[in-house]
Specification:
The protein has about 325 residues and is α+β, with helices and mostly antiparallel strands. About 45% of the residues lie in helices and about 25% in strands. Helix 6 (about 245-255) packs parallel to helix 8 (about 275-290), helix 8 (about 275-290) packs antiparallel against helix 9 (about 290-305) and helix 9 crosses helix 10.
């Protein structure tokens, strides 16, 4: 009797079929999740009301989100997520780990005008991470207003900070700093509101499991986010509030790395971009890609750029890399 043993090729085909079935199941679950969130009435009603605003101010956007989203509105989402985890342990949810696990954010609405998240604080992990120095490494001032309403908490302590409103047109000097305003312990039902660019909070202590709904308005008061040093309270870093700027900077770097001369024209145009981070980063990458193409835009930048730091850096670069003005 001849016995036919499965070959390596047969085993490979079986593995591929199993992988294909796994991927199909995963994609199906992701589609179900997307559709469930899209069609969930409180979320859909919130998005529709925001899109229909004739004057989409920060105050109006946050008011609509607060009126439509409470614990009863998100309870069906919690039930949905729980059932998915029970049926499929590797199910991908929209939850995002923040601050090394001490704080977890769950995206409810990700819209061009607003970001709404359910925020959960684990008191044990929070205190552990704070002892290890992994919490509050900077004092961050976001560009948009933030409302945090506590759905459940027996004790959530945060410090309030103030700072001057900065934009990318303002030169950063050594005297710019943030100031401590007050420290408050909040409980269930209370609301914390901070104005973008000028006010922020720092999480100081969590005495019990805490859950809140955080609403972040993308109607920015400024075009930069600022991080201050928690020890000196001086400006540490600035970054663009609009993430599209970061993507443009990445494309500039890719164009330079791959020596794409067809990108020279678009890069010259980007040296007039509204965001000074994009303008200056583009100038640096264009100099590396094609120095001659960068010279004239750089000379214009040194005299006319809205940001004083960019003007100064452009002038210094011309002094180092370009000897004289072209005739």
């Amino acid at each position: 009797m001849t016995v036919f043993a499965p070959t390596q090729s047969d085993a490979r085909k079986t593995d591929l079929k199993a992988s294909d079935a796994y991927l199909k199941m995963l994609f199906a679950l992701q589609r179900e999740t997307r559709d469930f969130y899209r069609d969930h009435i409180p979320l859909a009603r919130t998005v529709e009301a925001i899109e229909n605003l004739s004057a989409p101010t920060t105050e109006a956007i946050i008011r609509i989100a607060e009126e439509n989203l409470d614990f009863e509105a998100i309870k069906p989402l919690i039930d949905f997520e729980t059932s998915r985890y029970r049926s499929f342990p590797l199910y991908y949810s929209p939850m995002t780990a923040l601050n090394t696990g001490a704080v977890t954010g769950w995206v409810l609405i990700n819209h061009p005008k607003v970001l709404v998240m359910l925020i959960a604080f684990d008191p044990t992990e929070f205190r552990t991470q704070k002892l290890l120095g992994r919490m509050n490494e900077t004092i961050n001032f976001s560009a948009g207003d933030i409302s945090l309403r506590l759905l459940k908490s027996d004790g959530f302590t945060c410090s309030h900070w103030r700072a001057p409103l900065l934009t990318d047109e303002k030169s950063i000097d050594g005297d710019l700093h943030c100031v401590h305003d007050k420290t408050v312990t909040y409980k269930t039902g209370e609301r914390i509101y901070t104005k973008g660019g000028k006010e922020t909070i720092v999480y100081e202590d969590v005495t019990s499991p805490t859950i809140g709904i955080q609403i972040y308005s993308r109607q920015f008061r400024t075009n930069v986010m600022v991080d201050y040093d928690p020890e000196t309270h001086l400006v540490k870093t600035l970054s663009a509030a609009d993430q599209r700027s970061s993507r443009m900077q990445m494309l500039n770097t890719v164009a330079r790395l791959f020596e794409r001369e067809d990108a020279i024209g678009p890069m010259q145009s980007l040296m007039q971009h509204p965001d000074h981070y994009v303008r200056w980063q583009t100038a640096r990458e264009l100099i590396a890609l094609e120095p001659e193409a960068a010279e004239m835009p750089l000379r214009v930048m040194s005299k006319q750029d809205a940001n004083p730091d960019v003007r100064a850096m452009a002038a210094k670069t011309l002094e180092i890399f370009y000897a004289q003005e072209p005739s």
